[in-house]
Prior knowledge:
CATH architecture: 3-Layer(aba) Sandwich
Order of helices and strands: HEHEHEHHEHEEH
CATH topology: Rossmann fold
CATH class: Alpha Beta
CATH superfamily: Flavodoxin domain
Largest sheet: 6 strands, parallel
Strand content: 15-25%
Helix content: 25-40%
Number of domains: 1
Structural class: alpha/beta
Radius of gyration: 17 Å
Shape: globular
Amino acid sequence: MRCGRAAELETARTIVRKVGAMKTVVVYGSLWGNTAAIARAIAEGIGFGAQALSTAQASSAAISGADLIVAGSPVIGFSLPSEKMLENIRANPGKAPKPPDLSHPSMRAWLGALPEGHGRAAAFETRIWWSLGGATRAIVRGLKRAGYRPMAKGCQRRFIVKGAYGPLRDGELERARLWGEDLARAMK
């Protein structure tokens, strides 16, 4: 039996091996880059090879065997955006400072096609602070339908944008990174 510093180092190595073997995918739908930035910060916080993938990149092969899927979307029209909502944005982008990225399926469509899995689940959304409704409950429901079990505590987060098109409120990327760290600890 090891004692002192040697025991601490051995315990740390064991934890790194255990968590390092965990496959984590952070899947996002993003129109103006805010949700994508949050997803990358969450993946960075989780560490150990966690990947942030758009709904277009998060194929069945890419998520196969995932121990944890964290999925996120902007709130549009007070809910998880549908394909019809995205088509309306394509037809009338409003006063956006840049065109929306509509090159990927909506989170709703991605969840509808999600193959059966066995891992854990968490959800996040980007939104204006006063927005009614939200997207995280619908995301968690979709993940549950596919067999992913929501993490017991803190499995949903909201991140705030300053306006309809962003940017993110100051400090939100750091909050996302810290939440990623919390998710990684909860998976141990």
